[in-house]
Amino acid sequence: MTKDTHIHRRQVLLGAAAAGLGLAGGSSASWAQGAAGWPSKPVNLVVPFPAGGGTDAFARPLAAQFSKATGKTLVIDNRGGAGGTVGASYASKAAPDGYTLFMGAVHHAIAPSMYPKLDYDIEKDFVPLFLLANVPQVVVVNPRAVPVNNFQQFMDYVKRNPAKLNYGSAGAGTSHHLAGELFKQQTGTFITHIPYRGAGPALQDLIGGQVDMMFDGLGSSAAHIKAGRIKALMVSGPKRNAAFPDVPCAAEVGLPDYTVTTWYGLWAPKGTPADVQARIVDEIRKLGAADELKAIWANNGAEYGGMTQQQFAGMVSSEVKRWAAVVKASGAKLD
After folding, report:
1. CA distances from 226 to 28, 46, 116, 249 (A)
2. Can you spell out the DSSP letters for 58-74?
3. Contact in structure between 215 and 167 (CB atoms under 8 Å)
4. In the prediction, which pLDDT does 34 show?
5. pTM for this one?
């Protein structure tokens, strides 16, 4: 190799290195600009259940308000199956760029105890962003299949007809399933569990009479209760729900320890930059404080979630432990 050739090669390598540094700097600047300008294109929101369920009932109003506020579309991507774990698995592997978000629920805190071979970890593979809503579970029946007018009549009917009734759920390992198992445990009754690929399909079969009852989140049942398609007999917990003041709570009907709340939250894939996370949280917080979403949440019997990211992360961790204990005590298993 000649001296001139060596010098030329060195100049090329130094130039490439300088260009690389320039690209890195440009990339960093572009990324910072991207965080400030988020969203600059449509955002994909993975909803791990079919349309018509509780998660979907909160995701779609959120998407509508998001589009109005930002001018960009929040695209609902329904990916149901295996108690919400199929969609969660998909979302966990998405690019951490702020343009794929995941809307999960309490079911995803239950899943680790019900699905031991999950290929994702809700605490390690996601970044918790925002708690969107809390809503109590409600015991609902098809009034033609279960001819009762109140909870006491329902209990008498169940005890007179052991093993006759069945209940649909959003899938094995969901809060619908665990709420049913807890109910059976605390009342000494037996009701056959029928898992579906989401609350939406289960609700449609409840309305159609293919299943007798559900332990559903009030968010997905609310409209059908108001329309008279299904009958609400009890809401879980120590107090009545403001949207349904005539429906007694669990404590009133002799089940003081029957408390099951469905919550819905927003996550991003692990690795999403902190400034992008902050931008997303800020935008979602503003949407949640707006009158439009507050009214929809209240109509669905839900309370606005709020919480800081750290508080939400702590709640998820606590719920994973809580539901592990519930699963063990109830003996719930995959059907």
Report:
1. 52, 29, 39, 17
2. HHHHHHHHHHHHHSS-E
3. yes
4. 58
5. 0.83
